[in-house]
Amino acid sequence: MPAIRHSSKRKPPPEGFSDIEDDLLVFANKMKDAQNKPPPPGPKHMAQWEIFQIAHQRSRYVYDLYYEKEAISKQLYEWLLKNGYADAMLIAKWKKQGYEKLCCLRCVQTKETNFNSTCICRVPRAQLKEDGDMQCVSCGCRGCASSD
């Protein structure tokens, strides 16, 4: 039988975390408020939209700090991903051409749709025949195609 580890101490954050800690705390408070809010009236799938949007904003914030502004170190960036401050899989998609504006990973998973295709929000608005208000059922996105 393997030995049981009792190390409940987490590794301390790398240098530079204190500079962005306040912004991450704002995202954490928004997330708590969204989780504790009663669900909106209407379809059940709308209840999770705000949570998806906050998680997207937080991941985009970390992505922009590292790749766009180069304001944080690689060590801090990897620590943030490891500790759940950003979605590593979503950021990996953002680095690929054509996925720069992707709203969530559920929109590109073809197995979860009826016709084995991507979500309606991935279709460029110029190609849609109807001018109606389109909105993603998974996350509430109104369009995340790269050409929009």
UniProtKB/TrEMBL annotation:
Looking at the record's lineage, which domain of life comes first? Eukaryota
Cellular component, GO annotation: Prp19 complex; spliceosomal complex; U2 snRNP
Q: Recite the UniProt keywords alphabetically.
A: Nucleus
Q: Which GO terms describe its biological process?
A: mRNA splicing, via spliceosome
Q: Does the keyword Acetylation apply?
A: no
Which cell locations does it reside in?
A: Nucleus
Q: What is its main location?
A: nucleus
Under the heading InterPro entries, the entry gives: BUD31, BUD31/G10-rel_CS
Instruction: Check the record and name the Pfam families matching this protein.
Output: BUD31
Query: Keyword Nucleus on this protein?
Result: yes
Please state which protein family the record places this protein in. Belongs to the BUD31 (G10) family.
Q: What is this protein called?
A: Predicted protein
Q: What is the species listed in this Swiss-Prot or TrEMBL entry?
A: Hypocrea jecorina (strain QM6a)
